[in-house]
Amino acid sequence: MLDITNLSASYGEARVLTDVSVTVNPGEVVTLVGRNGAGKTTLLKCVMGLHRDYEGGISLAGAPVDKRSPDQRAKAGIGWVPDDRGMYASLTVAENLTLPPVVHSSGWSLDKVYDAFPVLRERRNSMGTQLSGGEQQMLAIARVLRMGSRLLLLDEPSEGLAPVIVQRIGEIIREIKKEGVSVLLVEQNVKFASTVADRHYLLAQGRVVEQLDNADFQARESELLVHLGI
Amino acid sequence: MGGISVHPLETQENRDMEDFIQYTVQGLSAGGFYALAALGLAVIFGALGVVNFAHGACYMLGAVGAAVLLGTFNINFWAALVIIPLLMFGFGVLIERLLIQWLLRLDILYNFLLTFGLALLLVDLVKREYGVSGLPYEVPPGLEGLVTIGSVSIQKYQLFVFAFSVVICLAVWLLLTRTRVGMIVRAATEEPERTRALGINVGRWVTPIFGFGIALAGLAGVLAAPFRAITASMGSNFIIVLFAIVVIGGLGSILGAVVAGFLVGLVEAYGQAYAPSFSQLVIFILMAIVILVRPAGLFGRRQEAV
Amino acid sequence: MGITKRTGTAFATLVAGGVLLAGCAGGGGPSTGATSELTNDKVVIGVLNDQSGVYKDLSGPNSVEAVRMAIADYQEKYGDDAVASEIEVVTADHQNKPDVANTQAQAMYDRQNADIILDVPASSAALAVSTVAAEKQKLYINIGAATMELTGASCNKYTFHWAYNTQMLAKGATGLVEDGGETWSIVYPDYAFGQDMLKSFSEAVEGAGGTVNESIATPFPNDNFATFITKAQSTNPDVIGTMQAGGDLINFVKQFNQSGARDTTTLAVGLMFITDIHSLGVEEFAGTTFTDAWYWNYDDQNREWADRFMEITDTRPSFAHAANYSAAFQYLEAIQRAGTDDADAVVAELEGQKIDDVFLRNGEIRADHSVAHDTYLAKVKSPGDVKEEWDYEEIITTLPAAQAYAPVQESCSL
């Protein structure tokens, strides 16, 4: 679904990513694990086209997207769930949901979204930023599901949320995986990552240092925790 | 008060009260006009992050355009209210495509300087073509004279300006809050990058929004033609008041521009009545107080002020 | 404000440059070959005025043209006998600012060798140039400014005040009071000119037996007068006098007419140029009375000159244009009589001179260097009475010079 090959990215003089290659297969959930500053969020922004200062190639379903603008990439099926959840203060919950265009026929209907997240229906006329953190995270995910994106970029969806909500997010990820949607997940919560992902990439200082399948990942959990400094 | 004869029995207090009501009506009328003129400035800043210094010059072009339509082509006020905003929309689109867009990614100062230069250019071109003394324009038939409500008489045209401005402000408000276009504009105003990442081509909206803001400036100019001197420099002082209004209201806030427009209109009227020499100063005193107490303006979001 | 002034500089440079070139090309005239009695072998006339701002139309570049007409007439009149065998015109834009006027005047006298500076509208700028003229001991004939101070406390040997002043403008008020306009409200811009005008008008009204109920200061510049007008009407005066000028005057009159005040109150305008009437349209001003220093369509002599002016400028002259012509011509005549352009000799020739020309009727250069002449109480015509473009004024009465001008100011000692 997504192929990132030999990608290097910089912020001005500072090199943030070096020679990174990551693949996400259709219907696969893949995580990027690493310390703060390892370059995980930058990699997502490169995929989304929000960070353009990179070399190397990104292709979606075999077609290169490097020359495309963020909105074209979104229309091609990449759905972005930013780490700050991306609420608009000047838009209501309903408007936050319906702002992006539906890009694929598999997009969830508004009813389906509201059935899956009843709280959003209840609060549809509130302003986006009046929701709790967990509710905002639900909304951010629901928004890209409604678009019908085929590849979700989730940036730390579990951060700062109560365990019961993290659990609910895990359920959602497994559910959309069943629909054939691919997910590239940035996560520091190793436990959570191991409950949803098929494969993991370990990032350190802007490089991929290791690639593990979920079984290995779970087996080496304590070692990885030390490695991540968590 | 002009048309009313004074009753000998009328007490001084009554008279003072009537005058006060009169001043208030005048303040609200001027306020509506200010709100309309400031609206475009706020829309443009909100959506593009451009401080459009040429807004006063575009207001002037609207008034001069109305005078030329009437004087040369015998096209009346009502038609000008439609034609001028359309022409100014086209002008705005042209300016945005030719000039503004190239500097959007740079510091806000670049477009500020660009529009400043543009204002100088437009003012000089109009001076060259039409001189400095200005152009004649008459009050449209049917709007001359006064209406008397109770003991207060109000100029019909003032009333018209007030009503028209309120309708336009309301229409813009509904457009922004009740339509998909408005939703996209609000989203693009708040977070242009993120909105792009959600599949919306923000750039496509930027040009028409700029044109729309310029059209509003032109519309204010047409409204001004019957009761203001139509000269090349008419916008040069006006823009300063408009800036004060958008700063008081909160940069980029539509509601803020409207509320501050009325506030400034009232403050100016009371200033003229009770402290004549300071009537323009009070606007800036008001601005200073607002900045001290709420640096982002009455309706501004904090991050926009930083 | 910022815009106008900044624009002014660039625009003025162009205009001034163009005028200068034209001046060099056209000002030469037939050379006499006679021994020159001229400083620097030529007469240099400087026109310092507003080339780009609010006073551009009422004086500005067309005053330079008027000066050039005077030079042509002088050269035609004297031919090879002209003492001023070579005449050059230099111009600059003072942007109506005293500091700029000061610098420009110094540059004109020192670097461009100007023998005289003409025009200089805006009272504060006019006074600044007067100081420079006294310092440099060179001539200065003011036309565009109204302040009494030029021939009062700040008068000096080299400064003349040619066309009008605030007291003369206020004479119109006397007539209005005598016609029954006894109670007045005066609205004035709160700076030197406005305060001067308020003083002169109040004296004139009260001198004729009227009363000033209310005087209202307004900011300058200003474009919203609605509440000031309501306030001016609150005492139900017979007359509302506005001392606003230029764009502010037009704003005031438009809003005055819309307030309905026109139906019950007479509007008196303190200072009005024909360019103001042209700009706002005769209908808006119809019936307004004011004092005029000169009107192009007053008689055949004026009209003939105005026709020549129109051929060159494509517009009709304001009184300032005619006064610039008159001042330049009479200056050259004084040189002719003196046989030199030496400043002291020319001043001596001008002092006490009685003059009749197209602008000055029964003119006299008085002891304080103010020039008294017949002036006119004018009324703006109704649109139906206008027979051609710029045919805007009806002259109600001619005020003889002695009546139009107050006695020489005692505060002046030369």
Q: Would you kindly provide a written description of the structure presented here, covering whatever features stand out?
A:
- The complex is a heterotrimer of chains A (230), B (306) and C (414).
- With 230 residues, chain A is of the alpha/beta class.
- Chain A contains 10 helices and 10 strands.
- Chain A has a single domain (2-83, 149-228), classed as Rossmann fold (3-Layer(aba) Sandwich), CATH 3.40.50.300.
- Chain A has helices at 40-48, 70-75, 93-98, 110-116, 118-122, 133-147, 163-178, 190-196, 214-219, 221-228, and strands at residues 2-11, 14-24, 29-34, 54-60, 63-64, 78-81, 151-155, 182-187, 199-204, 207-213.
- The mean pLDDT of chain A is 89.
- With 306 residues, chain B is mainly α.
- In chain B, helix 2 (55-73) packs across helix 8 (202-224).
- Chain B starts with 11 loop residues before the first helix and ends with a helix.
- Mean pLDDT of chain B is 87; it is low at 1-9 and 302-306.
- Chain C folds into 2 domains: 2-164 and 299-372, Rossmann fold (3-Layer(aba) Sandwich), CATH 3.40.50.2300; 167-292 and 375-404, Response regulator (Rossmann fold).
- In chain C, the strands form 4 sheets. Chain C has a 5-stranded parallel sheet, with helices on both faces. In chain C, strands 7-6-8-9 form a 4-stranded parallel sheet, with helices on both faces. A 3-stranded antiparallel sheet of chain C has the order 10-14-15.
- In chain C, helix 3 runs parallel beside helix 4 (123-136) and helix 13 (319-338) crosses helix 14 (343-350).
- Chain C has helices at residues 2-26, 60-78, 98-110, 123-136, 166-178, 192-207, 226-233, 246-258, 261-264, 274-280, 282-285, 300-313, 319-338, 343-350, 401-404; strands at 43-49, 87-93, 116-119, 139-142, 159-161, 183-189, 211-218, 239-242, 266-269, 289-292, 354-355, 363-365, 371-372, 375-380, 393-399.
- The chains are: A alpha/beta (230), B mainly alpha (306), C alpha/beta (414).
- Chains in contact: A-B, B-C.
- Chains B and C meet through helix 1, helix 4, helix 9 and helix 10 of B and helix 1, strand 7, helix 7, helix 8 and helix 9 of C.
Q: Topology, pairings included?
A:
The complex is a heterotrimer of chains A (230), B (306) and C (414).
Chain A: E1 2-11, E2 14-24, E3 29-34, H1 40-48, E4 54-60, E5 63-64, H2 70-75, E6 78-81, H3 93-98, H4 110-116, H5 118-122, H6 133-147, E7 151-155, H7 163-178, E8 182-187, H8 190-196, E9 199-204, E10 207-213, H9 214-219, H10 221-228
Parallel strand pairs in A: 3-8, 3-9, 6-7, 7-8
Antiparallel strand pairs in A: 1-2, 1-4, 4-5, 9-10
Chain B: H1 12-48, H2 55-73, H3 77-103, H4 108-130, E1 146-149, E2 152-155, H5 156-178, H6 180-190, H7 192-197, H8 202-224, H9 234-249, H10 254-274, H11 281-293, H12 302-305
Chain C: H1 2-26, E1 43-49, H2 60-78, E2 87-93, H3 98-110, E3 116-119, H4 123-136, E4 139-142, E5 159-161, H5 166-178, E6 183-189, H6 192-207, E7 211-218, H7 226-233, E8 239-242, H8 246-258, H9 261-264, E9 266-269, H10 274-280, H11 282-285, E10 289-292, H12 300-313, H13 319-338, H14 343-350, E11 354-355, E12 363-365, E13 371-372, E14 375-380, E15 393-399, H15 401-404
Parallel strand pairs in C: 1-2, 1-3, 3-4, 4-5, 6-7, 6-8, 8-9
Antiparallel strand pairs in C: 10-14, 11-12, 12-13, 14-15
Helix pairs in contact in C: 2-13, 3-4, 5-6, 13-14
